Amino acid sequence: MGEAAHRYEETLPLEYRTQESRLNILGFWIFLGAEVALFATLFATYLVLFQRTGSGPTAGELFEVKDVLIETLLLLTSSFTCGLAIFEMRRGRMSGLIAWLLVTLLLGAGFITFEIREFIHYVHEGATMQTSAFLSSFFVLVGTHGAHVSVGIGWMILIIIQLLQRGLTAKTARKVFIVSLYWHFLDVVWIFIFTLVYLLGMVI
Amino acid sequence: MKWSEFFVTGEPLIYAADVAIVLTMVGIVFVLTYFKKWKWLWNEWLTTVDHKKIGVMYIICAVLMLFRGGVDALLMRAQLTAPNMKFLDAQHYNEIFTTHGTIMILFMAMPFIIGLMNIVVPLQIGARDVAFPYLNALSFWLFFFGALLFNISFVIGGSPDAGWTAYFPLAGNEFSHGVGNNYYAVALQISGIGTLMTGINFLVTILKMRAPGMTLMRMPMFTWTILITCVLIIFAFPVLTVALALMTFDRLFDTQFFTMANGGMSMLWANLFWIWGHPEVYIVILPAFGIFSEVVSTFAGKRLFGYKAMVGSIVGIAFLSFIVWVHHFFTMGAGPAVNSAFSITTMAIAIPTGVKIFNWLFTLRKGKIRFTTAMLWSLAFIPNFVIGGVTGVMLAMAAADYQYHNSYFLIAHFHYVLIAGTVFACFAGLHYWYPKMFGHILNERLGKWTFWLFMIGFNICFFPMYFLGLMGMTRRMYTYSDGLGWTPLNVVATVGAVLMGIGFIVLCYNIYYSARYGERDMTGDPWNGRTLEWATASPPVHYNFPVTPVVEDLDAYWVMKKKYGGFHVKEEDLKPIHMPSNSGRPFWMSVAFFVAGFGLVFKWFALAIVGALFIVLGLILRSFEDDDGYYIPVDEIKRMERAARKGA
Q: Which domain holds residue A110?
């Protein structure tokens, strides 16, 4: 810390101006590196186990294309609207920023709703976490992603409240930027889930 | 879970432990109340975000855990001294070797290393604190309550008993019914989250907060090893997080990851565990290499030989550490091609390690060697670690490993690398940096007694185990029959273990003795050190450096002393210093983690949810917090500097 902590760089984007913000953003990038390792492990587990279906259904028998496509569209769009929110923030427009964050939130909530529906549907078909190794790894991988999205929604609500309370400052801008990094990361993970879990599952 | 099974019963040792725990708690409460120290404890320690105090707390916990793990070890040695002993039964023995391994690696070696790095790294790079002081406090308290949760298992509910590797299917519900392995899964998870955050915190600290002029290639070797260790933590610990989560799901919610039926694959656990576990052994050994580098260079009075080669070999070791994990189960039957590949990568680690050994030897060459206690530990490390390393290469030969696998040969090997590497380094680092932590030197005479007792005891204890292994004694056997010819070597090993125990007692006495009578360090630089931590007072004022030092070369403080006669601060250069505020939230959030974890262990989900809600509450409060720390005014800095430098 020290003087350096408050070295203010006028030329940088708002979220990068204080030393504290620069440290936080770098720290969050590194955290995302750890998250990559975490999801990589879950993917590896899934790929090892996904054909070990025991007496339960296989991936091809289970997956519903329509629900998954809707989820994918909702989440990919939310990543785009999240990008628009940052764009508005860089232009210094509070109303645009908050509006796009709200749209992002709603799309994220829609994604979670469809995912929960999808899970309930599987459970009604008798495909639970306890049925087979394939389903255990499926529910834990996709569920971990879903839990991340849910945390992201709660987090974004907190940040919107702070934006309304405190306005767009170096600190709130940094918080918005970090949650946007998180949101895009979850989008990337979903692309891998869509490909390696759903598409692969329906092909093999 | 029946209430009658809640407390562990039936063993006189456990009842004695119950009494000891209650008495200790009553004693602590009495002392704190009698001396009116509750407020002091809360304000100075439980809420602190000062990296030096956090480091001290880590080391206190590590020493306590060394005691706990050491008692486990002595119980095991007592049981194995003679054939057909009835001292411990099979179940109790299983629990003790499990907790011994888990505690020594995760709750002794890790916090000892993390404690030293907390104290030293910000000082070595000329920083005032770590990048995220609040997070640092949270890391510590998560470790603390994880360790606490793990330790209460032996009086409440029963300890884990499937080995520190917790292999499936043994650790699964099919074969382990009690809550013991739930403790393993949940307690390690809680402290593992803390470790991951420490890794991120120190990586950012080292990358972004170095004093002006300190390029990467001017960093002290200890800081270099911590930098690489952080990278290992960041990529290895998430694997443990996942493995433990899957274990928790299997045990609490009957999923099928590692089970015997419905497609479960028990060897998946072994793979995940060691994909974390092998980098983990380098997480505890690389900082040890860093400590030895500092100590050898200081007490040889020379710049570290082959600095660049040292950096290169740490990076090389770190890279290789991720691609050797299969050597822990060559006998799994993965086939000659897989085993050969992992055999070669494993042997390749000997090359960068050998480079480092030679660099230490060349640093010593023509040095004016001072045989301080810290230096003795470092010098003893070299031959002892080489014995461990060479037997490691023997184990790395996949075909031969079928003979050595899970025998006492393996036990001897990894104790030779972990004790002669990590534990010797912790002791070397403790003696070396002790004046920096507490302002007085650990008594050298008692320190040397500890060293000789422990080092000789260590060799008497573990060297015979190589031969016991070759004679066919396998690990984790709780007793053996007469007439196998193992008895004499087992007796010798127990004698060695007792010597190590005595060495530990002398160390504890030394801590007490030196606090009362030890030589005070008034200079801040008792060893004629080379790196920036010796430019501060002993112990440093909480902001570390009144002005940020400027680094001109490797061995920054050595250069300052040669060029300018030391680190001088002009009072007119002082500016107000910004420092982070204390917070009680890391503490109570970690209590919430403990409560949630305890609920999960016993499948009391209502309790787990209550704990989880408090964790979420803590996160929300943190998000809304608007505390940017405070400034120390210049007059206050002047006053504190004069007070700290009175003796200099």
A: 3-203
Question: At A94, which CATH number?
Answer: 1.20.120.80
Task: Determine the residue of chain A that is closest to B212 in CA distance.
Answer: A4
Contact A2 B578 (CB under 8 A): yes
Nearest to A1 among B129, B196, B268 (CB): B129
Helix (H) or strand (E) holding B511: helix B487-517
pLDDT tens, residue by residue, B530-553: 999 999 998 999 999 999 999 999
User: Which of helix, strand or coil describes residue A18?
Assistant: strand
- Number of Cα atoms under 13 Å in the Cβ half of residue B488: 3
Q: How far apart (Å, rounded) are the C-alpha atoms in residues A140 and A153?
A: 20
Q: What is the 3-state secondary structure (H, E, C) of B325-342?
A: HHHHHHHHCCCHHHHHHH
Q: Who among A37, A38, A136 is closest to B257 (CB)?
A: A136
Residue A164, chain B, CB below 8 Å: the answer is no
Structural domains counted in chain A: 1
- Contact by Cβ (8 Å): B249, B216: no
- In whole angstroms, give the CA distance from residue B203 to residue B221: 15
pLDDT one-digit tens code per residue, B449-500: 999 999 999 999 999 999 999 999 999 999 999 999 999 999 999 999 999 9
**CA–CA separation, B294 and B427 (whole Å):** 13
What is the ipTM for the molecules in this complex? 0.94
A168 near A90, Cβ under 8 Å? no
Alpha helices in B302-372 (DSSP H): 307-321, 336-348, 350-364
